[in-house]
Every structure is written in structure tokens, then in C-alpha cells.
Amino acid sequence: MERGDSLYLSRVIDDELDALMPVLPAIALEGARGVGKTATARRRAQSAYYLDNPDTELSLAGDPGLVLRGPEPILIDEWQRIPYSWDLVRRAVDGDGSGGRFILTGSANRNNLPAHSGAGRIVRLHLRPLTLSERGVGVPSVSLAGLLSGARQQLTGTTDVTLDQYVHEIVGSGLPGLRGQSDRGRRESLDSYVAEIVDRDFLEQGRRIRNPVALQRWMTAYASLVSTTAAWETVRDAATGGHREKPARSTVGPYVDILQALWILEPIPAWLPSKNRMSRLALAPKHQLFDPAVAARLMNLDEGGLLKAGRDLGALFESLVTLDVRVYAQAAEARVFHLRTRQPHERKVDLIVEGHDSGVVGIEVKLAQAVSDDDVRHLHWLRGQIGERLRDAVIVTTGSYAYRRPDGIAVVPAALLGP
After folding, report:
1. 311 near 319, Cβ under 8 Å?
2. Helix axis angle, 311-331 relative to 12-20, nearest 10°?
3. Against a cut of 0.85, is the pTM above it?
4. How many Cβ atoms from other residues are within 10 Å of residue 345's Cβ?
């Protein structure tokens, strides 16, 4: 379709919407505030109702069915502000299931749910911050979908993106509205974003925060532990250093629940080389925030500080790669996990991408240009565990060239990985 808005940055999800809208009656675009849901949906809508507009809210109070009238597709923006709007769409779809009727956008999940989930009527798609390819950082030459296919194609492509540029993108944010801002402006915007979470978003989710400083301190502690599987006690202790009294799990639990409902926390579930999915539920997820720039800002790390940060830099580079992989995996109808075993020996694979046919791509993330035999040992172990289910194995690096090692492991610079 025509993408005529010159200010709009094309998204991977655009192709998903192009494929799904003609055949699905209603699609809900979900994700954290500011990721671009409204802009993406608006370009496809013929009518629009913005439910965060007080005038619209008053109009709907007198005529709830208003959101169902107008040329289709109809955009209902921030539907969770008036939750019954979801049920109105569901009932309309029950009466007419033809494709391309409604697009809903929402910045909250799980809380304030409508009376009916919409399963089978309204399909949910997750929109995340901009990936490296969407930002225009490099031209991808290696397709995640191609890796999942198992074709084991020869890899090619070069990039001149350096470590300094990756660091710039970590702190630069994937929120479209922050692209192009000055460094000072971006820092102020990110501080304001976090303040809005603490001061407004929690209240809108029905939770008044008695100690906003404690919540922000907890978020900072969580940010310092991204790309790890640290226990909640570790996060709590990091957030309360120097304080004798530690908050109970019942105090911290709502922080986690609401931040996940707002799509701010996006932990990666665990995976094991077994088809017994129940066994995965007991394993710890890996911590991630939705945008590594928010994590960096919470830790007060700018580009210079991040280059000196050691473990934090490696963790946030993994967070940046994880963002990209999640977007590309969704486009390929795949899901993203992590792997960590402790018995009889510790084995770790940073990211496991599992396709709809149970095929797997194992991905390790290395903040380095060169790849050693030691870097790939867990990928070889994974191959020995699941055999042909492992469609491909990849090391994502900060290097310049995409290639295959003699042992078959793919080496792909982050800037060259695409959908």
C-alpha cells in the first residue's frame, strides 16, 4: 500500500498488517506508550476515534455505538480508556466478520480487561520500539525468517557500523518521537517518560503509589539487571541498598504486574531443549525493559559512561539485539525465549527463537568483533541436544562481516540482521 507520509518511519509490522487486515475483521495494536501505534494505525484508517480526547468521551457517553460508524477501517485509539469499546467491536465482528473493519490501539494490557477477551474476533499484534533496520542503521543482509527456514544459505554482507554507533543507538531510543532530538532534549524526554509512568500510568491502572521515589529506585535496580535472570530478592536488595527494612513481595509484586501491563517490563520466558512445556514454567525469565534507552537513562548512563560501563554495556547491547529479534520473530510467526540450565553443568544461550513448526534458531550475543571457539560451545551443545530441530545457530556481534564459520555457526553483525 502507499506509504505517503514522509515523516513516517516504515515498520516491520506494516507488512504484517498488509497481510492480515484484508482477512481479519479487527486487529489490536498493543505496546508501550510512545512506540508509534497511533501513527501506524492511522495510516490505514478511514475513520478515527481518539478515546483520550474528552470531547470523544462525552460523545460516547451519550451514544456508545458512535465508534462503530464511519468508513472502514475504523481506528479506535487508546481503547482501554473506555473499556466497553472493546466489547462493542467484538459484537460488531460477531455480526459481520469481513476483513479490515477495525483497528484498536492500546497502551495497557491485562488490567481493566473488557467483559470478553475477544479471542477469535480481535487479533492482537505487539508493536515495539524501532529496530536498528527501522532506524536506518545499516541495510540488513541476513533474514531471521531465512535462518528459521533451515536453508543454511551462504551469508554475505558488510557494515561500517561501529561500537560507538551501537552505543549511540542504545541511548538514542527506539521511540519514534525521540528520534532526531538533541542529546539534552532526549534525556529530558526520557526522564519525563519515566515520571509519567510513576505519577500517571500507575494511577490510571488503579494503583496509587505512596512512595514514588521507591518505585523509581526499584525500576533503576531492575534496569541494572537487564539481560540477567536475577531473583526478585536481588532486584529488591539492589533497590534498597543501605536500608535495613526491605519491602515484602506483596509490596513489590504490584510494581511488576503493572509495569508488565504497561508493556514497560518485557521479561523473556525460559526455554528448555524438551517438548515438555510445563517444565519451562519453573525456570526464571530473563529481565528486559522494552527499550534499552530507558534502562540506560534510569542508570544515568550516557554514551561516554556506557562505553566505560563494562557489564552494563554488554547487557544493554544484548537488550538492543533482543528488541530487534523480537520484532523480526513476530513477523516470522515465531516466539523468543532464553535458555539456561544449571544441572549437571551450566549451559546458556542468550536467545532461542522457536518457529510455529517447532524449528529453533539459537542466538548468542557478543559485544565483540571476533568470535572464538569458546563463544560457540553452548550452541554446539544445543545442536547435540535437539538435532535437526536446530535450524540454525548464530552469534550476533559488533563486527563488520556476515559469514559462516567452518563449523556452520553463522556470525552476523547486529546491523545486518533483519526480518
Report:
1. no
2. 20
3. yes
4. 7
